[in-house]
Amino acid sequence: MSESTTPGKNGNLTGSARKLKDDAADWHNLNLKWEQLNDEGSTIATKIVNLGLSKKSDTEPGVVMEGGSLAAGDFSENLKQNVVDKMANILSKMEKMVHAERGICELEAFRFGEKGRAAPLFHTWSTHQFVEVSSKLYESYKLELALKKTILRELPHTANADLSMVYLSSWLHQAYIEDSGKLLLEQESLLLETGHRPL
């Protein structure tokens, strides 16, 4: 069974080419969903910090402190269920794409030898390059999710205002993803290579 390698023609792609092109679109869409969740999480995390700060500045700990503690717990649960758990689901989808692409690479090595196919499926990238980029993206999101889980665990129990602001800033900034303009460039390169974006 032959695979069409005509870049940019949606209806003609089959097999490995179709899978890689679909994955490129999925990376883009999952990134957009992640960014939306990050914004939602930042809003909830800000509420947790504000509750902590108002609780600390309150001179009468009585009922207000108790109510604030309950509200912070509610916000933390909201942050877990509506943001972090959904991010974990996105990461799971990313991991499956990486595994599938590695499978394509192994299949090509079996069919065409160690160097893979002679001509690229799209413009210039070998299948191995798709796997490398997807793996880098996945590892970055994996590290970012681990950081967010730490922030989720620590933020509601942090009494120090400065440390709370560091956690909040770390959530918003996304050092493992945002800091690397290279990662965003690689996501864009996936779209260009597969014909989702014109060259």
From TrEMBL:
<protein>
    <submittedName>
        <fullName>Cyclin-dependent kinase 2 interacting protein</fullName>
    </submittedName>
</protein>
<dbReference type="InterPro" id="IPR023250">
    <property type="entry name" value="Cyclin-dep_Kinase_2_interact"/>
</dbReference>
